[in-house]
Here is the input.
Amino acid sequence: MPSPPFHLALPVDDLQAADRFYAELLCCPRGRRSERWIDYDFWGHQLVTHLVPAGAMPSLARNPVDGEDIPASHFGVVLPWDELEQLIARLTASGVEFAIAPTVRFAARRGEQKTCFVCDPAGNYLEFKAFRNIDMLFASDGLDYP
Here is the structure.
């Protein structure tokens, strides 16, 4: 049975820039909208961007993971490996600057994955990743991770 879709709402300080990013660059279909928010179909999940004043954007903490300084607050989607490769190519061709460049994390371990981070125009971090073996999405290999 498929998992129910999640709902995520996040602040943006420029609704039109967010719309270009999510609808045009990431190809997320638009749903309902108002002057202050827009719904998107984010790979089958409901993502809502809410317009807030620039000074109201939250600050960001970071956490070290496998040699990278990972934004503690981020979201994204786990894609099949080839679909992630296609997305990375589209982002690169569009001139998107990666916050964390595409890399393979936890190489040769059960949780091996390819990952990259980008920011939307409001500074919200998105992580796109693919597992070498999707069955390892929630598996533990019994070892500590750096």
